[in-house]
């Protein structure tokens, strides 16, 4: 665990997530319409995020994505930043996706790929277009 996360963060869990999965994860978020921090940029979901997630969270039928928030660290500590309701996968990170990240089970690339494929597919069903950065297409 990084020193900043230890002092200021809330990502905790039983299994450290391999940092090498970060590129794959962030690329999938971008394809699903999210920026590199997990903020939804190209569409809006009509599915409310469950309590105690905050208004920055984006929810679909199977997923909830909560960007890291500084304004209410107590609330943020109660919820994972990424939840796959189908597999039960919960990911927590410090500041941006998969930085000093932890999961509720040992996550491999082979396990993550189909989860991310379903995320992209479901977000596109809601009208998501790929996010290519501010001013990108």
Number of helices: 4
- For the largest sheet, list the strands in their spatial order: 1-6-5-4-3-2
How much of the sequence lies in strands comes to 5-15%
Rounded mean pLDDT score: 86
Description:
The chain is an alpha+beta fold. The protein has one domain. 28% of the residues lie in helices and 11% in strands. It has helices spanning 3-8, 22-31, 73-78, 109-125, and strands at 15-16, 58-59, 63-65, 82-84, 90-92, 102-103. The protein has a six-stranded antiparallel sheet with strand order 1-6-5-4-3-2, with no helix packed on it. Strand 4 and strand 5 (90-92) form a beta hairpin. The protein is globular. The termini are far apart. The model is unreliable at 3-9 (pLDDT under 50).
Please specify the SSE layout and strand pairing:
Elements: H1 3-8, E1 15-16, H2 22-31, E2 58-59, E3 63-65, H3 73-78, E4 82-84, E5 90-92, E6 102-103, H4 109-125
Antiparallel strand pairs: 1-6, 2-3, 3-4, 4-5, 5-6
Helix pairs in contact: 2-4
